[in-house]
Amino acid sequence: MINCEEAARKLYEYLDRQLTDAEAAEVREHLERCPPCLDYYRFEEGVLTRVGQVCREVQVPSALVERVRKMCAESQSRS
């Protein structure tokens, strides 16, 4: 089982669903048995949810969208 420090290190990857199934299960098990970490998870999940809601409400300039797409494409081509 993982400890609080390890759970905190993996929390954002857990929220973003970027962990392996086994790692996600470890974090989930830790959250189920550790109320302080569960509180921290719920807070961070709430922040991400609210940021996502606000971002969907904002009209992004098309020039910015195009710049970001271009940067992503350039980054992927270098990998």
Note down, in words, how this protein is organized.
This protein is an all-alpha fold. The protein has one domain. It has four helices and no strands. The radius of gyration is 17 Å and the shape is flat. The model has no long low-confidence stretch (mean pLDDT 93).
Concise overview:
It contains 4 helices and no strands.
Average pLDDT reading: 93
Number of helices: 4
Class inferred from helices and paired strands = mainly alpha
| Count of domain modules | 1
Give the biggest beta sheet.
none
Cα separation of the termini:
34 Å
Give the SSE order as H and E letters.
HHHH
Instruction: Give the C-alpha Rg.
Output: 17 Å
Helix content: over 70%
Q: Tally the beta strands.
A: 0
List keywords for this structure.
79 residues; mainly alpha; 4 helices; 82% helix; 0% strand; flat
Topology overview:
Blueprint (H helix, E strand, L loop, with lengths): L3 H12 L5 H13 L1 H23 L4 H17 L1
